[in-house]
Structures are given as structure tokens and as C-alpha cells.
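Job type: complex structure
Entries:
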Amino acid sequence: MIRIAVDAMGGDHAPGAVVDGALLAAKGLGVEIVLVGSKEAVDRELSRRSVRDSAIQTIHASQVVAMGESPSATLKKRDSSMMVAFQLMKRGEVEAVVSAGNSGAMMATGMFVLGNLPLVDRPAIMVVVPTLLKGAVIIDAGANVDCKPHHLVQFGLMGSIYAEKVLGIPRPRVGALSNGEEEGKGNDLTRAASEQLRSTPLNYIGYVEGRDINSGGVDVVVCDGFTGNVALKTMEGVAGFILQVLKEAFRENTLTRLSYLLSRGALHRAYNRLDYAEYGGAPLLGLNGVAIVAHGGSGPKAIKNAIRVAKETVAHDVNRLIVEVLERLGETHKEDGLPHKVWRHIRSKIDKISERPAAEGEGRENKSGGKG
Amino acid sequence: MIRIAVDAMGGDHAPGAVVDGALLAAKGLGVEIVLVGSKEAVDRELSRRSVRDSAIQTIHASQVVAMGESPSATLKKRDSSMMVAFQLMKRGEVEAVVSAGNSGAMMATGMFVLGNLPLVDRPAIMVVVPTLLKGAVIIDAGANVDCKPHHLVQFGLMGSIYAEKVLGIPRPRVGALSNGEEEGKGNDLTRAASEQLRSTPLNYIGYVEGRDINSGGVDVVVCDGFTGNVALKTMEGVAGFILQVLKEAFRENTLTRLSYLLSRGALHRAYNRLDYAEYGGAPLLGLNGVAIVAHGGSGPKAIKNAIRVAKETVAHDVNRLIVEVLERLGETHKEDGLPHKVWRHIRSKIDKISERPAAEGEGRENKSGGKG
């Protein structure tokens, strides 16, 4: 049975909503949960619900990471619930970590404890958003604000593997988020990344626009973390705005109130199609381990769904696939295949892993390296 | 009476929808319209409606700018409806140009015929989006994909003047669009721009996020044209997606269909609050003239509202105010006030305008300049 550490102290409604979500997951998903956090607070929540579920265990952590906290402040808290959860994964006691806490702190702690996967330069936040079809992923949704083109290529590879294996989309269509679909559009970053993406084995369809994200016309939306975060939060904002306007419309008079009552079920189902909580948490792809960030405002259902995402990411062995694909890409794409820079970069990583001496020049490097 | 040139050939539904929009505007807004385009096509549309409105005039142009066309291809068409319209403005025969055509071509043609306002480096597309309150503006929504920090400062100044004078928002709150509200967030561009914005007389409130755009918490959202375009099209995409999901919900069964009938009026009013057509066109701020881009899919109502925006921009003398504020800023903010770079930049522009010799060094510059 897959064992997952859940940060009991993360999120706006912790620990109550987290404990409820963990209980739902233990019951419904067939996973074992380790709740990490203030033992007193967590046990109080558990006893209040008077449940004894053998699939739920508690491990104490004395510190809590705050929402606005900087990564450097976070890393000083060696006994935070987040840090302790990642250390459980490092020791092989759990296979994934789930938290509704500070996503920047999650990334920093994950990198500190686990590091990145071989060949991956920059882990990224991947978010699944609803579409008229199966859903699409945005990667990076906020981890890396200033990116190089080859980072976007790696995001595309990681997102594509996830979309294929976990979301079950065969040969996912990968698009680079841009300000227009024509080749001449884009900025310096997307133009270079687009050229590189075109020469990978990915099903790259070129530029996509903001309005394509939810249309079902693209499965993997690749962008730097700044742009992805703006797009994602804009989606949230517009959705909230429209729901507010609709609420006011239904409250207008007796007839509109009656109208709402008649279609309440259908509207509720429509709302669920739009609700982030249905889509669970956001995997931090590229970490050397499985880490899922749930929305800060997560209720029990969202926590349960984030745990489901963790389970699926583990079960489909997404990380092993990412490493394999990047390795294969480095081997089959010789210098004339993949754009030279990407190839050289991947190659140098492979060299490092296989620990072959890098031939001439290495001795010199070591000498000058000693000074630093 | 304000006289406005309208590109009769621009947009997906031209010339029919444009002619209808122009008629609505001539009747409802008290403006004179010059329809520019194929005289045959426009006159056919006018005679089909069998109206004779003395406030509407037609001027022939033999060429049409296509939607996907590059700026360089556009500028070769010296008799396009867009080019002829801008030349009318250049000669002082109209005070504004409105087109639902290719926005990149509009900007290129506007720059070619009119140039930019003194002190403005980069004209920008400004879009008004609906909010729970009065509406907010996004600037730049797509003209400049790669920007320098001082461009964003100028966008903030222009957007703020427009929001105050045309939208009637006293002391507009200006925010820089970013991936988080904390100071540590942002990318290289926004961090530098934010620092510069803080030292202007603008009512700068710091970073805002995608979810703040529609909330009413900010009046002027400043960003580079790449980010602004992604945000804007994401808003469009999400709105379309939600409306589609709602439509399906109301079609579910007899009860939901009945429910729709009962609240149709209220839902229609809600839809109008969200509809871009209600907000009219997007001014190209910073051009040495008034140019308004309407949405490519504009129907008659959207065309009419774009003409209304043109009229208001002329009536409030937005361009004169922009120049005045930039001049005053250059005078009152000595080197220790505004960040040095912005100041120096504005100062050099003022120097150029007042045509004072730039003292020592200028002779040398002229000599080496002669070689190029």
C-alpha cells in the first residue's frame, strides 16, 4: 500500500480540513497516511471525530511554515511539519508528500532535502486546469520566474509524460504559451524555446494563446513560472468574478430565485466542472521524489484529491519515466539532432552521472575550482 | 462636432457590422463618421440599409490589411483603408481612427504615419476590463513583448491619466502585474519597474496578481505586452469556457430549460456586465493621435462603443495630458527624485524637443554619427 506524508499544518483550514481530507483519502483511496504536525493539535482533531483508522498515523513536528514566509526563513525551521514530511520521504518511509502550505517553501524544502531528478535543471509546478475535454496542464505555474529556453523544453517533457501517464491523454499536444499563434509572435524566450521544442520528439503544436488553455485544443501549456502564475491566477479571478455576477443575477427577484432552485442541481454539477478542488493538487515535477501542493484554501475534498494525485504520480512512476526520457533523448539526439545547447547540456549531465572522467581540461578546472 | 475615421474593412464582420456600428454611433453619439474602404462595398451596405445620414461620409481606399499580416507587409499597402484613415488624421481632417482590424498593423501604421507622442518611448495597447466596480485597465495588452522597466513606468502614467479622465476614477490605484504580492516576488523586469513606479507621483500600490484584475482592488494594471496579452486572452478563454458549461447546464432537462426562461432577463444583464463589447475598443496610448482598436469579432454594438471610446479620448484631451504630465515629471523630479535612469531618459527627450544645444560632447556625437 502506498504511504503518503500529509503536512497537517499547511493551508488556511489546517489542521481540521487536512485531517478530514486524510480520513476521506484513507477510506476512499486505499492509501496509508502519515499526518505530520503538532501531535497535540492533530490528535485533538482525530479524537474530536472519534475515529480510529489504522491507515492513519501521526508524527510530531514542533514548527510550522507560515504562508508568506521566505524560502530562507523556511529552511531554518529544521523541525517544521514540511521539513519532517520531506525527511520521511528521504528515508524511504513514505513515497510522497502532500501540503496545502506555502508552495515556494515546499519547493525550497523539497530541493533542500531531496534535490532534483538527474538531468532536470529546474523543478516546476504543474497545475491541471479544467477544459471542455479531459483537462490540460500548465507547467511552470510559478516556481521559476526567469527561465532559459531549455528549461521550457524540460517543462514540456515533464508535463507531457504526466499528461500521458496520469491523465491518460495519448500523445499529448504541447504548446508554448504566447501572445499570438503566428510564428512571428512571442518574446525572446518563447521564440528560442519554440525552436528547441520543435526538434524534440514531443507532439509540439507551436504557440498557443491564453484563450486556448481551457478550450481543449492543447494538453500541455508550457511557459515560464511568471507567465504561468499570472495566467492561472487570472483564471481563478475571472471565474470568481463571473460566479459573483451570476449570484447577483439569481438574487434579483422572486422569479430568478425560483429559477435558481429549479436548476440548482445542474448548476452545482457545472460548478464542480470548474472547481479546482476537483482536480486536486499541483505536482512539483522534477524533484527527486513526489511532492504535491494543494491550494491554500483547500477543504477536505481538495486535500483528498491532492492525496489522490500523489498516489497516481507514485503509481505511474512518473519520475522514473522523466529520467528515462531525458536520458534517451540525450543518447539518440546527437549534436545535429536536438539543438546543440540542449544536447550539450543533457550530455554533460549524463556524463556527470556516469562519472566518467571528462577528459582534458578537468584537472585545470579542479585546480581553479579549489580557490572558490 | 468630433469627426472620426472608421476603417470599414477591418474585423471579421466587415464591412456590414462596421457600417451598422457607424450608423448607431452617428445617431447616438453626436459624432461625424468617415467610413474608409472600398467605396463600392461601403455604398452597397449603406444603400441596402436605405439610410441617408449626413453625418456619414465615405472615402475610398483600394487595399485591405489582412488579419494575420505582418507589419512590414502592411506598411507596403499605401492605399489600405487603415493607412488612408491615419492619413486623414495626419492632415487634421479627422480627430481619431477606429478599426476592428489587425491590432499589430494598426500600431505599425499609426507609428508610421503619426509617430509617437513626445516623451513616450513605446505606445501601448490599453484595454478596459470589467470588474465588480467601475472597470480596470490593462496596459500594455500586446504591443511590446519585451520591455524595459521605464517602459512600464510610462504605461502606468498613461493608463492612470486615461483611468482618471475618461473612466472618471479619482487617483487611480496603479499595480504591477506579478506572480505574487510580496516584495520578493516578481521577475527581473517587474522588480526594477516596481522600484521606479514607487518614486513617481502615481498612486502606486505595488504588485497585484492575476486574480486581482477583476476584483476591483486595482484600477491600472501595468505589465509588458506579452504578459498582458496572455492575461487578457486567458480572461476571454475562461469566460467563454464558463458560459459554455453554463449553457450545457441549462440544457440538461425540461426543468433547467424552464429555469433559464425565468431568469433570462437577469442572466442577459449579467452577460452584458461581462461582455467586452460593452467596454468598447482599446486605445493605442502614446501615439501622436487617437487610435482605437476594436475586437476582431466586433458586431455593431462593439463598433459603436469603440467609436464612443474614440470620442471620449478626444474630448478629454488625453494625449495633451500625457505629454504635460511627462514634461512636468521631468522638470520637478530632479536627479535625486525619479530614479536616475528614468529621469535622464525623460530629460533627454525634453532637451530634444526644446532644441537647446546639449552643450559639450554634442559636436563629437554628430561627427561620429555622420559615419553611420
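Summary: The longest strand of chain B covers residues 32-37. Residues 225-250 of chain B form the longest helix (26 residues).
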